[in-house]
Specification:
Strand order of the largest sheet: 5-12-11-6-10-7-9-8
CATH superfamily of the largest domain: P-loop containing nucleotide triphosphate hydrolases
CATH architecture of the largest domain: 3-Layer(aba) Sandwich
Number of strands: 12
CATH topology of the largest domain: Rossmann fold
Number of helices: 26
Structural class: alpha/beta
Length: 751
């Protein structure tokens, strides 16, 4: 973050490789110093505007009233949709503040105080009070669409005029709300109501009116809420009474439909079931007894005793009498048998009588057995009948139990309805009794008094804020201008390193017309060898030789992004300076499209580099000598085929190898990278490439794109030369290298 501030202030690229993340205060101060007139101008304008504003503002007096918010002592009704307890918490305080600042509340006060007739609030009554930008005098001259877009219908020719009553009232409400201020005092339950007006007494009067109206509004609201609650409760009581009657009627209907006894009554079904159970027990006993007797008789009849044995257990008078008659006849038969023979008529008659009696006994026994069997059948039938009756009653009981469940649900529903009905009825009584006992939930702690001193404008504060704001805006404007200026081109070696990641070999001063009035720019290096220009090229040469200590640098390519960056001047001057220093130097004009070296050296452009590469001329034949410096050079020559094809050929490689074998330093002046691809082809074939960038003119993105192309092509970039530097302007920027050719270093040079 700190580094980004420095980058913005100094105009460096934020996407560049970063070094330290420490904030550099000196860089910020230097940037502010460079743009001090921007800072001072902005500071002066803003401060002057603040002073003018403070002097032109109409004084306003502010009155203050304090109102305490308190919780309700009692409640009207707790149902949320009707009302509730007024709790004095933070949300309630905020709600009350918004109520006091609402347009509806303001409209009530505007009407109550007749503020529409006050020019202070209804500026339509006094056009002089309306701000210039709100005046219709100049807006009428605007085109209709523009006027409607900027001001809507608030125009003199629109649907609503300035003098219209509705619009005047709306503007008065707006002005009233602008003067009203309501805040919570710290974290307390106290509201601070403040109102500003041009007249101190008016400010106090309106402030007290706001507080009083707020209290009255609460009381009226509570009374209206009570009325609404009473009406609502009456409707609910009537409704719940009807629901209760319906619920109780449903209970009665369900009891009748299910045959369910009411509370405190014996259930008839249960009573019948008890009776049937008693009868069933008796029937079961009777059936068991009949079956036992029948089984006993059947068993005796099957025994050896037969009917005689059965007759002993049968309680039949007839059978007992027949039994006695049989015994008497048997006795007589024994007596007669002792006297007469078996065929005697008396014997025959007695036997016949005995047989007749025994037949009657058999008939009687069979009848009795049949009666016993019938008795068993009757007992069994009775038992079955009773069981069927019991099953029917039990089924009816089950149905009754289902009805009882439904009945209990109906009874619970009726009980709930009765409880709600009684609750509503009780609330209705409470509301009716407390209707006239309501109190406001707020009280005035402090009424507004007439203020003595105006609260606005605070002239000292306004001027102080204007000064501080002007200073801040001036610094921001300075940083913006610095950034905008710095975004275009490089201005120092540190910017080159930080933005492009490449070191700057030197900053080469621009040669003014005064400095070259009696010579060409290319001759300046020869006539001013102790100048700052010459020293900068000396730095370039030293940096090139020291850039790679593992091998000797012999071939150097000089290129740039675009034309007019001083590339050819630097190439020629660097070569002449090297030749003057004793190095066997060869300068080659590699710009076959726009050659210039032959013009500088005042020779013809024939038999040059293009001819060597085409095979028409040898290197030794193409070399010329500069008599002023002893520099050997080769002009561009006339290219008959595409230069890229020539530079890609094996002859180009052999040429560089031959030159490197004969010379200490070979400098090739190549065309700009942004124009053609010649330099990209030559860069991998030389030892080092020097990239020339015009100081503060060549766009950074253009320069960095060219540097990336050289590196991507395989060239070994020695560094960047910032050319045509405005020495005086650069010195004012306060960079680390700002004093290289001016100020305290200027005495070392002879320009």
């Amino acid at each position: 973050m700190a580094r980004d501030i420095t980058r913005f202030a100094t105009g460096t690229d934020r996407d560049a490789p970063r070094g330290t993340d420490e904030l550099d205060p000196r860089a910020l101060l230097r940037a502010l110093w460079r743009r001090k007139w921007v800072v001072l101008g902005t500071l002066t304008l803003v401060t002057a505007g603040g002073i003018a504003f403070a002097l032109s503002e109409t004084p306003l007096y502010r009155a203050e009233s304090l109102v305490r918010i308190q919780s309700s002592a009692s409640t009207v009704i707790e149902l949320p949709e009707i009302g509730g307890v007024f709790e004095a918490d933070d949300s309630t305080i905020e709600s009350e503040i918004e109520l006091l600042k609402s347009r509806a509340f303001a409209a009530r006060l505007v009407d109550q105080l007749a503020l529409v007739e006050d020019p202070e609030f209804n500026t339509a009554l006094d056009p002089a009070r309306r701000p210039f930008w709100k005046s219709a005098a100049w807006r009428d001259h605007l085109p209709g669409p523009v006027r409607r877009y900027l001001f809507g219908d608030e125009v003199s020719g629109g649907a609503v005029n300035e003098g219209d009553g509705a619009s005047a009232r709306l503007r008065t409400i707006d002005n009233f709300l602008d003067r009203l201020d309501v805040d919570q005092v710290s974290r307390s339950y106290v509201l601070q109501i403040r109102f500003s007006a041009e007249d101190a007494a008016k400010a106090a009067r309106i402030t007290n009116a706001v507080a009083d109206t707020y209290i009255v509004d609460q009381l009226e609201g509570k009374y209206a809420a009570g009325q609404r609650a009473t009406t609502w409760l009456r409707a609910r009581v009537d409704e719940m009474r009807g629901q209760l009657v319906e619920a109780e009627q449903r209970i009665v209907d369900r009891r009748n439909a299910g045959g369910i006894a009411g509370e405190g009554r014996i259930d008839p079904l249960q009573q019948q079931i008890g009776q049937i159970n008693g009868q069933l027990a008796q029937a079961q006993a009777a059936r068991a007894e009949a079956e036992a007797r029948f089984d006993q008789v059947q068993s005796l009849l099957r025994s050896a005793g037969g009917i005689g044995s059965a007759a002993n257990v049968l309680n039949s008078p007839l059978l007992a009498r027949l039994r006695e008659d049989e015994t008497e006849l048997a006795r007589r038969l024994s007596e007669v048998a002792a006297v007469f023979g078996p065929r005697h008529p008396q014997m025959v008659n007695l036997k016949a009588e005995i047989g007749s009696i025994r037949g009657k006994m058999v008939e009687e026994v069979e009848r009795i057995v049949q009666d016993l069997a019938n008795e068993v059948d009757v007992a069994r039938a009775r038992e079955r009948e009773l069981r069927a009756s019991l099953a029917g009653l039990e089924a009816r009981v089950q149905v009754q139990e289902v009805s009882s469940v439904e009945l209990r649900d109906l009874e619970r529903e009726a009980a709930s309805t009765r409880e709600i009905y009684e609750s509503f009825l009780q609330r209705l009584r409470e509301v009716s009794e407390t209707q006239g006992l309501q109190q406001a939930d707020a009280a005035i702690l402090s009424a507004a008094t007439v203020p003595v001193d105006p609260a606005w404008p605070n002239k000292k504060l306004i001027v102080l804020l204007a000064f501080g704001g002007g200073l801040v805006l001036g610094c921001i404007a300075a940083f913006v201008v610095e950034r905008w200026d710095g975004d275009y081109g490089f201005r120092s070696a540190e910017e080159v390193l930080e933005a492009a990641g490449v070191r700057a070999l030197a900053l080469v001063p621009d040669l003014s017309r005064r400095e070259t009035r009696d010579m060409t720019a290319e001759e300046y290096i020869l006539k001013r060898p102790q100048s700052a220009f010459a020293e900068s090229l000396q730095r370039v040469r030293t940096s090139i030789f020291l850039s790679d200590r593992d091998r000797t640098t012999r071939t150097v390519l000089v290129t740039s992004s675009v034309p007019v960056e001083g590339k050819s001047l630097i190439s020629a001057s660097l070569a002449r300076q090297s030749a003057r220093s004793g190095l066997n130097t060869l300068l080659i004009d590699g710009d076959l499209r726009r050659p210039r070296l032959h013009e500088v050296m005042r020779v013809s452009n024939t038999g040059g580099l293009a001819d060597i590469l085409f095979g028409d001329t040898l290197l030794s034949d193409a070399i010329r000598v500069d008599e002023k410096s002893g520099l050997k050079f080769v002009p561009a020559g006339m290219a008959s085929i595409s230069p890229p094809d020539l530079f890609r050929s094996d002859k180009a490689k052999r040429l560089l190898e031959q030159a490197a074998a004969r010379f200490d330093l070979i400098i090739i002046d190549s065309p700009p990278v942004g124009a053609v691809s010649d330099s990209l082809i030559l860069a991998p074939q030389v030892d080092k490439t020097v990239y020339v960038v015009r100081w503060q003119e060549t766009a950074r993105n253009v320069a960095m794109a060219g540097i990336r192309q050289i590196e991507e092509a395989g060239g070994d970039l020695a560094g960047v030369i910032l050319s045509r530097v405005d020495v005086k302007k650069h010195a004012r920027y306060g960079y680390a290298d700002s004093g290289s050719y001016a100020g305290y270093y200027g005495k070392y040079y002879q320009n």
